[in-house]
User: Fold these one by one.
Assistant:
Number 1:
Amino acid sequence: MKMQTFTVFAAVFGVLLGATAWQAEAQFRADEFDYGSRFRLPDGQQPTIWNPAKRKLLDGGPMIGGTVRATDPRTYCTMAAAGYDFIWVEMQHEAISWEQVARFWRTCPGPAAPGVRVAYADEREIQHATDMGAAVIVVPTVDSVEEARAAVDWTYFPPIGRRSSGGGQGPSEIWNDVPGGYRQTWNDNVVLFLMIETLEGVESAREIAKIPGVTGLFAASGDLGNFSGFGEGDSEYEALITEVATAAKEAGIHACAPLRWANRPDFTCFQAGTEGANIRRGAAAEIRQAEERYGSTGGGVGAARTSSEAGSVIAGLTAECGSITYEADCYAAVESAASAAGSMSASDKAQVGRRVREIIAANPAQATRIREIASRGGLDVG
């Protein structure tokens, strides 16, 4: 009896196993599916480039982005109307919420394209950005091909990526009437920059640059120094920067950098200063102009006034080092000041030196490096 029961069970199991095998063979295979034509433009029609940042890149650049770290929409709107191609909202290092950023872009969707540096290559981060209206996505500390592909996945709609169609104020309000339709033209308009900031990122840069959908590699000046232990001018550091730029050039994509590197070959896209630096720079220029006019009238006899030549240099120092946001920018301003001071009169040179000493005293963490750069440039800072 037991043997008969076993025989029946085996027969039934065999039938089920055969059925399962047949079903496995008949299963749908996603990798063999041909993507449909629903989102294609009519034959012969080219996608309109409605993203001003993407248009600037296609025209050869330079594409320049301003940086916003504030939480006030009025500050954002001022920066968006200042002439930049896009605005880089700092979501990696600032305590800004997505609701605040959404309000920025809803209030002032232009003329600069809305852009953001997210915290990492993540579905939630990037789709918050795109659904809220960002047209430029910057992803920091990309170390590997896998991270780069994740960034592409969440930035682009199928068939390039895996971005889901979830609505939001970007497609429904800010870009709802773009020529050709938002969904149909998004993949042609979005800009995706991946930041190479670590030694692992530099090692993978050439493979990362080849991934379809990557618009450009950003050579992160500050963190490449942070992760390498070397700074601008050091041969080891410069070799890292060259490797990133070469990776982008060989792949036919853009190489991006801080705006102070606009004179370096191969770079076509840049990050400019923060709203804080712009305020300091503008205030310094305005005050200098007032002092020069005041001095020309003969008023304020005996008062120490900054000459035009020294004043311009001091304004730059104040903008970048008065409240240090990016160390590399401050160091570059000190190096520029030391170089300019070499051709100044003794009194002007002394004023520049005095300002650098004030900066050294106010920034003990950066004091040694600032003193070294100034002294190397021939500026006496004590």
Note: The radius of gyration is 28 Å.
Number 2:
Amino acid sequence: MSNEEKKLNTEGAEEEIKKEDIPSDNQDAAAPEDEEKEMNASEEKEEDSQKTAEEPKKEESADEEAMDAKYLRLMADFQNYKRRAEKEKSEIYAYANEKLAVQLLDVIDNFERALQHETADENYIEGMKMIFKQLTGVLEKAGLEEINALGEDFDPNFHNAVMTEDNADYESGKVTEVMQKGYLLNKKVIRPSMVKVNN
């Protein structure tokens, strides 16, 4: 082989090596596309992982809201129960003496009848008046009060009409006579007044 042929062969081999080292335009274009695909895939993975992380958070927040609502309802129910219990307790204290007061009303009626009788002994009358005043004072402290009826408009909540009459001294529907006194205990009617009403 001559020197010129050797030279030509080595030059050809060098050119082939150079051609292999230089990347083609197609290779350069393909590389960025691959990078974009990889980036898109990684972004999708991140979004999926975020979605899966958000789902339990949403469930947890919904559970917390339900628990808060349940707690608030329970607190409201407890407050209502507490108010009811306090009201019932105060009513028990207020009306605990009702039965005793109703029974003592007959004693008061008899006292009043006795005081209306005339007697020559003034000291006896004064003593009876003092005892009666003491008894009514004790009952008034317990919340007993007399219902005003004479000359008032007839009210079925406080008065029990047993008779009617035509009386020129009173307007129609007015109470003309009290036949038995009525009483309230702590603003509750324990005995209505027995009355006569004008037509």
Note: The helical segments are 3-21, 25-95, 98-116, 122-141.
Number 3:
Amino acid sequence: MKAFGFLSFGHYGAGAARGEFGAREALQQAVEIGVGADEIGVNGAYFRVHHFAKQAAAPIPLLTAIAARTKRIEVGTGVIDMRYENPLHLAEEAAALDLLSDGRVALGISRGSPEPALRGWEAFGYEDNDDAKGANLARAKFDRFLSAIRGDQIAPADPAQFGPGARLSIEPQSPGLDRRIWWGAGSRSTAEWAGEQGVNLMSSTLLTEATGASFGELQREQIDRYRQAWRAAGHDWAPRVSVSRSVFPITTDLDDLYFGRRSGADSDQIGIIDGLRSTFGKTYAGEPDRLIDELRADPAVEAADTLMLTVPNQLGVDYNLHILESFADHVAPALGWKPNTEGPVQGHSA
């Protein structure tokens, strides 16, 4: 592990009950967590994207707000559900944000997880006639998005202005942005596909596989297959790999109250998601020395360059920054962490 960031699901309530915050508070607090994390030296601020739910949904305005108030922290997603996106519009917005932030964008993109709406992407105006889950739609859009940010000529030009046969690329262009795009993979096969495409790997918070192996072992095999596919495709740069974990150092009585007396959360969980038997990672909670030993023994954390810590955003700015600072002070240095003051994160050689 070279770097760590926080991954927020952006939950909020109706904002009607006493002490309950709504969308405005959730977004404003997300910005403040990002600002505080940058000052701590945290490497990345990442947000889940969901639709038709009381969670973060429109990432670019949020990432822009954080980027405008920070200097070094990477801003990104984990993940954007491509089924809901116009790929060229997203390419324009991503490039503009990347230019404004001096190359600090790291967008995780994927087919996405099941949403509250039944085929909600159809309400956004998109249909997949070949796959009820929209996987083909997502990959086709992702191909077009990558083509656009790589500067390919996408649209025919007006011959009255440019002459016959001319074509145009999207604007603006941000050179190098394509090397900071990640595919969120929930299986070994999708990880291999990401390696073939030449994009970074964001291993999911769950895997749609259950073989009896631990979550960390499954992820490690996924990472190894990704790197094998990367090498076979002949890409000439070192990709990045991230994994997500729930990690809570117990350093105060409040930490112990929230996370120290957990039952059933200290082991992997098996469940059904999207009709598939899936493996969910365990929660790591304990004194720092114990966490160091456990995370060192996690084969996927050992193989990844970036660890994303899922944070309880509804517990407020101060407590979330306390979690990040505790991890930075007491756990991360022993795992090889380099704070954001040492420059952009580099991937391990594939």
Note: Residues 11 and 269 are 22 Å apart (CA to CA).
